[in-house]
Peroxidase
Amino acid sequence: MASFKAFMPFLFVVCLMVGSVSAQLSSTFYDTTCPNVSSIVRGVVEQALRSDDRAGAKLIRLHFHDCFVDGCDGSVLLEDQDGIVSELGANGNDGITGFNIVNDIKAAIENVCPGVVSCADILALASRHSVNLAGGPGWETQLGRRDGRTANLNGAMELPSPFDDLSVLRRKFRDVQLDDTTDLVALSGAHTFGRSRCRFFDRRLNTSNPDPTLNSTYADQLRENCQPGRDTFVNLDPTTPDTFDRNYFTNLQSNRGLLESDQVLFSTSGAPTISIVNSFASSQSQFFTAFAQSMINMGNLGPLTGSTGEIRTNCRRLN
Ligand code: HEM
Ligand SMILES: *[C@@H]1O[C@H](CO)[C@@H](O)[C@H](O)[C@H]1NC(C)=O
Ligand SMILES: *[C@@H]1O[C@H](CO)[C@@H](O)[C@H](O)[C@H]1NC(C)=O
Ligand SMILES: *[C@@H]1O[C@H](CO)[C@@H](O)[C@H](O)[C@H]1NC(C)=O
């Protein structure tokens, strides 16, 4: 008993630390204030998918770029305005899109429960439904984030780049307190749907300097799609472009990762990510379980909770 008492202060400190990492989000956060929020979001995402195959891909990418810069606080959504230099000026955010869908979701929610649901939580819920509607897993979305009143352009300059090698990608995941192997590989699996413009991979297509980690048959196809001056959109997953499945990983095994930052997960000699790619390629359920957990991990990054920040009325602007 005496030794347990002596241990108590340590236990208390450990609980505080765990508390600050998981930041008090909860899957029941809106149960009394906006009980139908999840199905409202799902409904608007479904609607958006009817006219835009990429709608879900756009939304989850926004959530990723939000969470990696000062945590999931809706900062990526802010336009230039008084006191705010938008993060959209960063290279990593060049061409990022989906803001209109976020506005539609926000409008649908404000109709039913005004002033209650944050834009940061909208991105988390929209990501969860986007993945699920494309055939991927579901999970209990953790909620209760507040919207920030700042943006961080310099932080956005540090977003992972398609030209980063594996050691830089791993360092950027560690920098935000994510796991640099399992979270990195699982979350990169989001490239099982959506598109990339040619500028992000066309240096791999130089015939006088062939990329040894790029499948030559696939490279020929890409050259057709990416003729000079045509910054076309190309499927990130050439096998099943709009379906959330394990084919991103089987593609890597046949050197058909589109971006260098995709292929390095499998083609960097001796890397600890290779065996993870192989297990996700051979078991979709292992991928889905890991992906759901990694999305919760990413969604937990540094959220504002309690009475910090605000609930934005317009996701693109401070109140
Ligand atoms: C690991 C480092 C990552 C890098 C270097 C990277 C880079 C990129 C690039 C260059 C594009 C194409 C953008 C364009 O042409 O406009 C893209 C698209 C996309 N990314 Fe990533 N990404 C990474 C991780 C992630 C993560 C963690 C997620 C989500 C969990 C994600 C989701 C997506 C989706 C869904 C698209 C397609 C978007 C669309 O069709 O509009 N990416 N990514
Ligand atoms: C919840 O929202 C969905 C989608 O908008 C709608 O179909 C359903 O009737 C709503 N349920 C309640 C109880 O409001
Ligand atoms: C293609 O690769 C060659 C050889 O490395 C290089 O000299 C040339 O500049 C490259 N072309 C382009 C368009 O990058
Ligand atoms: C290249 O991709 C094709 C499928 O398009 C595959 O059959 C072949 O094995 C791949 N080659 C290599 C070297 O991975």
User: Anything to note?
Assistant: Strands lie at 195-197, 233-235.
